[in-house]
Amino acid sequence: MMTHAIRLHQAGAPELMQWESIALPPPAAGEVRLRHHAIGLNYIDTYHRSGLYPLPLPSGLGQEGAGVVEAVGEGVSEVAVGDRVAYATAPLGAYAEARNVPADVLVPLPDALSFEQGAAMLMQGLTAQYLLRRTYRVQAGDTILVHAAAGGVGTIMCQWAKALGATVIGTVGSEHKAELARANGCDHPIVYTRENFARRVRELTDGEGVPVVFDSIGKDTFMDSLACLRPLGLMVSFGNASGAVPLVDIGVLARMGSLFLTRPTLFTYAARRSDLLAMASELFDLVVAGTLRVEINQRYALKDVAQAHRDLEGRRTSASSILLP
């Protein structure tokens, strides 16, 4: 059968992404054919498109989507034709009307959740899950720092950490985003363009610092993030929105208080299907219960993905964004 997909033949600017008609073969053993109803847009997509994370070209793009299973290959037992499913750890290629994906990356989407919610939250929500529940298990009474607190991951993390009983400090780029972060559970939004966030964190913690910093910004915030930590604190660097962190002399971790540093990825934490299902189940239960709200503030036609990337990189988006095939 034929379908349409976004293809990248040369890494670089957003306009290099091409809308093409492609042949979709029957699903192979262990695969299913999935008809997308919504597709997730994530910052990592811009790394793949720009060449920051090099790909063998030509390539598809996108790692997250939600839809209905149309056909199954040999040996598939995880899902059946007609199932509503979502995924966030599949091989690249989500920017498509339909695609073949490994069955073992799919999670069942509860009837109480829409396809748009599934596509908007899974990668960001699973990221929030492993960061808050496994990388550093947030407890009631903790004070934590979350960068990009008005972004897709940030808004979910603020809500979740607040529900766990933590005090949340967050950095944002504008007063509008400060209000958005505050509405999602951030106790102390810091507009980093207006004040030094490391100094402000020290003020808010009576000079003590925080036990953990969740940093998706990278190069521009790395050293100041370390300065926010109390002795034996954990620096969680999980993204590069401002560029890759330069090489670090690990002696700085000793000088700043025997600090810990980790660079985690969702794909490691969700590599085992049993872990993936448990993570998704916890996330979906909280959304269905109303503890977590999924805010979709931008919707784009899949054909218009270049504009979506420009908005994402220009920090003109907030909360979650989706693509509609």
Automatic annotation (TrEMBL):
Recorded GO MF terms? mRNA 3'-UTR AU-rich region binding; NADPH binding; quinone reductase (NADPH) activity; zinc ion binding
Q: What are the Enoyl reductase (ER) domain coordinates in residue numbering?
A: 12-323
Q: Sorted alphabetically, which PROSITE patterns does this protein's record hold?
A: QOR_ZETA_CRYSTAL
Listed CDD domains: QOR2
Q: Provide this UniProt record's keywords sorted from A to Z.
A: NADP, Oxidoreductase
* Cellular component, GO annotation: cytosol
Q: Note the PANTHER family from the entry.
A: QUINONE OXIDOREDUCTASE PIG3-RELATED (PTHR48106), QUINONE OXIDOREDUCTASE-RELATED (PTHR48106:SF13)
Q: Which NCBIfam families match?
A: PRK10754.1 (NF008024)
Q: What is this protein called?
A: Quinone oxidoreductase
